[in-house]
Amino acid sequence: MKRIHNRLPGFVLCTHLSLLILCIISNSMSGW
To answer: What is the pTM assigned to this prediction?
Structure first.
């Protein structure tokens, strides 16, 4: 249980980072 809890923040961070990059790319495409 402890291991999963420690791993979760990293997974969430990775997901948020991916979504952020995706958002930036989409905005860049729309801007161009």
So the answer is: 0.56
